[in-house]
């Protein structure tokens, strides 16, 4: 019973320890190490023929921070470098963990080290952390371990994630730019209505004359803004949160929202090209790594990040399973551009599908770049026009009564 409890007990949390001691020939040494207890640090130092002196706990790594895709990309590249240099997996993991700064990433690396030291393969240890290491990552590491080309696979994963992350950032930029324009416009207008217009309103009350229609409209809008601006912000935030929650619970609603996003002018085209690029890049990476096409399509579906394309890729996978060629199955969905389908067809005929898929991904990534740049160029003057119209409209409406009085005199 006691043994069972001991086995089920959670290990002590990881900490960063500052140490000082004496090395060979009594040379004073100091530094930092990562471990769970002082005994761990003493053991690590002893293996390096260092006699521990003072050991001081600095910080804990448990549950702090969040691991993101960039962290995983850097981790993969560092591991690839270590493995290529001939360093054993455990030592490579130890070296990487000591170079990391983010506590959550250090803890993750240490957990993988423990699993590997217990007899698990690197891919098996990573598979225990699906939030950080997706199916593609685990499958490619597994393929690399079996083929004796782990360093190449890790480098390929790092390059893949770098390109995908870059594409994500471009798409985010395209989505946030229009949002920023609207937010700035609404914010400036609300500021004028709440702070500036009331000052003019008190002055207009002394005129004792009927205000022009535009001025009266602005004053009414100002009174409404002063009363309900908090309600408006709360309603907007609440609506967005409710919509997100509903989309998470309802697959049908999420599907419709993704479809609506693809129909937006300019933004929709960027989303289309981004989905095609991510699909072809993922499929190229898996296929070049020896993953069967059907399994690669399953992985690529998750990378599309749009439910319309996820469904289309799943349809492609089903058709390929029945024996259809990839390009024909893609054409049948009516989702993929004719150019992409044609290039995939050429790749299949020439026996260089992975290379052609990478070219398709490169082409559509460049298209996304061009579209985002065009959108940015379009939005810059649009911001000026929108702000000018809003601010100018409010200012003109406020000065209309003054102009009329001047004309009457």
Structure in words:
By secondary structure, this protein is mainly alpha-helical. It folds into three domains: 43 residues; 94 residues, Receptor-associated Protein (Up-down Bundle); 246 residues, Up-down Bundle (Receptor-associated Protein). Helices cover 75% and strands 6% of the residues. 31% of the residues are buried.
Annotate the secondary structure layout.
Elements: H1 2-8, E1 15-22, E2 28-35, H2 38-47, E3 51-60, H3 69-84, H4 89-99, H5 103-117, H6 122-127, H7 135-147, H8 150-204, H9 213-249, H10 251-263, H11 267-288, H12 293-303, H13 307-321, H14 326-333, H15 338-350, H16 353-408
Antiparallel strand pairs: 1-2, 1-3
Helix pairs in contact: 3-4, 3-8, 4-5, 7-8, 8-9, 8-11, 8-16, 9-10, 9-16, 10-11, 11-12, 11-16, 12-13, 13-14, 14-15, 15-16
Short description:
This protein is mainly α and 409 residues long.
| SS content category | mainly alpha
Number of strands: 3
Strand content: 5-15%
Unreliable residue stretches:
1-9
- Sequence of strands across the biggest β-sheet: 2-1-3
| Biggest sheet descriptor | 3 strands, antiparallel
Per DSSP, the total helix count is: 16
Protein traits:
409 residues, mainly alpha, Receptor-associated Protein, 3 domains, three-stranded antiparallel sheet, 16 helices, 6% strand, disordered N terminus
């Amino acid at each position: 019973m006691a043994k069972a409890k001991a086995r089920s007990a959670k290990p002590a949390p990881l900490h960063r320890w500052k140490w000082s001691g004496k090395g060979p020939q009594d040379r004073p040494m100091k530094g930092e190490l990562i471990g769970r207890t002082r005994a761990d640090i003493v053991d690590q130092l002893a293996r390096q023929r260092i006699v521990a002196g003072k050991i001081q706990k600095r910080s804990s790594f448990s549950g702090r921070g969040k691991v993101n895709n960039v962290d995983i990309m850097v981790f993969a590249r560092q591991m690839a470098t270590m493995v290529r240099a001939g360093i054993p997996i455990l030592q490579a993991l130890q070296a990487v963990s000591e170079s990391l700064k983010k506590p959550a990433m250090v803890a993750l690396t240490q957990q993988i080290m423990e699993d590997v030291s217990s007899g698990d393969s690197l891919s098996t240890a990573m598979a225990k952390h699906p939030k950080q290491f997706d199916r593609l990552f685990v499958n490619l590491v597994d393929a690399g371990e079996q083929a004796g080309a782990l360093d190449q696979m890790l480098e390929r994963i790092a390059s893949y994630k770098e390109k995908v992350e870059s594409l994500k950032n471009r798409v985010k930029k395209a989505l946030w730019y229009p949002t920023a324009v609207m937010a700035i416009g609404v914010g400036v207008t609300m500021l004028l209505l709440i702070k500036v217009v009331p000052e003019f309103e008190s002055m207009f009350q002394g005129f004792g004359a009927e205000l022009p229609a535009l001025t009266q409209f602005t004053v009414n809008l100002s009174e409404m803004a002063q009363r309900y601006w908090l309600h408006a912000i709360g309603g907007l935030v609440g609506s967005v949160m409710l919509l997100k929650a509903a989309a998470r619970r309802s697959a049908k609603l999420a599907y419709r929202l993704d479809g609506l996003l693809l129909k937006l002018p300019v933004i929709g085209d960027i989303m289309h090209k981004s989905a095609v690029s991510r699909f072809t890049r993922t499929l190229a990476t898996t296929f070049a790594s020896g993953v069967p096409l059907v399994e690669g399509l399953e992985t690529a579906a998750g990378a599309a990040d749009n439910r319309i394309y996820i469904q289309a890729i799943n349809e492609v996978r089903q058709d390929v399973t029945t024996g259809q060629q990839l390009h024909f199955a893609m054409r049948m969905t009516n989702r993929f551009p004719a150019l992409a389908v044609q290039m995939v067809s050429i790749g299949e005929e020439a026996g260089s599908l992975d290379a052609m898929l990478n070219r398709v991904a490169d082409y559509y990534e460049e298209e996304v770049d061009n579209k985002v740049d065009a959108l940015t160029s379009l939005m810059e003057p649009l911001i000026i026009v929108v702000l000018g119209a809003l601010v100018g409209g409010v200012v003109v409406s406020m000065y209309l009564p003054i102009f009329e009085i001047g004309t009457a005199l």
